[in-house]
Amino acid sequence: MDTTGRPRLRSRFRKALRYAAELHERQIRKKSSDAAPDVPYLAHLLGVASLVIGAGGSEDEAIAALLHDALEDRPRGGRTEREIGARFGPKVRDVVKACTKAEAEGHDARLQADREYVRHLKDAGASVQLVAAADKLHNARAIVADLREDGDDVWRRFNKTREETLDYYRSLVAALGGATGAARPLAEELGRTVETMLELAGAGERRAGA
User: Fold this and answer.
1) Alpha-carbon distance 117 to 22, whole Å?
2) pLDDT class for 72, splitting at 50, 70, 90?
3) What is the pLDDT of residues 157-175, one digit of tens each?
4) CB distance 102 to 113 below 8 Å
5) What pLDDT, on a 0 to 100 scale, did the predictor assign at position 96?
6) How many CA atoms lie within 13 A of 63 on its CB side?
7) CA 186 to CA 190: how far, in whole Å?
8) pLDDT class for 147, splitting at 50, 70, 90?
9) CA 190 from chain center: how many Å?
10) φ and ψ of 126, to 5 deg
């Protein structure tokens, strides 16, 4: 509840939920193994929004969490950014845009896009850091769970190598190290989760070399 006694999440959030479901209805989460079940991509968006809401995020931030991948995945091209602004306002649009990596084709270009995203994230606004921390924490938890279940098979789902992926998560933890407000506990939890990821990845490496 907000200070007026009204629910924090109102009809705008419900509209955003429907919009996110429409945009991503044909997408599934990446799998660590062929035997893993298909999981609708919406599960990730709901997970990120849940983290933002649980951290005390505003309705705008919760909506941005639901839509944070709408531009990166570009299910409907350039129309999507204009639609987000028209439907949910400039703040939501700007947070979603700031959480979006630059388009990149090819391995080296994707690595460069990662580096630019991390640099931008370090000095981003509080709302951007909150949504980004929730996004990366949700992904990191999924990687940790898959490492425990499937071991090194998890790295097959990435376009980057194992070490490149681990370096990326290390850099995210460093970039969000100065986060304040609602983003801070999520950034700290991301740091702990990445430590677990590194430990499990090291254990897998030792087993492979045994």
Assistant:
1) 27
2) confident
3) 888 999 999 999 999 999 9
4) yes
5) 96
6) 25
7) 6
8) very high
9) 11
10) -60, -40
Q: What angle do CA 160, 161, 165 make, to 5 degrees?
A: 70
Q: How confident is the model at residue 26 (pLDDT cuts 50, 70, 90)?
A: confident
The single-letter DSSP state of residue 106 is S
Residue with tokens 């309705």: 59
Residue 39's pLDDT is what? 82
pTM as predicted: 0.89
Q: Which two tokens stand for residue 172?
A: 């995210």
For 175, what's the count of Cα atoms within 13 Å in the CB-facing half-sphere?
25
Considering the segment(s) 11-209 as one domain, its CATH architecture is: Orthogonal Bundle (1.10)
Q: Would you state the pLDDT for residue 209? A: 44
pLDDT-derived band at 210, boundaries 50, 70, 90: very low
Q: What are 174's two structure tokens? A: 């460093």
Q: What's the DSSP call for residue 126?
A: H
- CA pair distance 206, 209, nearest whole angstrom: 5
Alpha-helical regions (H) of the chain: 11-23, 42-54, 59-66, 70-73, 79-88, 90-98, 107-122, 126-150, 162-175, 183-209
DSSP states along 142-186: HHHHHHHHHGGGGGGGSSS-HHHHHHHHHHHHHHTTT--TTHHHH
Structure tokens at 154: 């998890």
Category of 106 on φ-ψ map: left (φ > 0), alpha (ψ -120 to 50) or beta = left
Give yes or no for a contact between 48 and 135, defined as CB atoms under 8 angstroms apart. yes
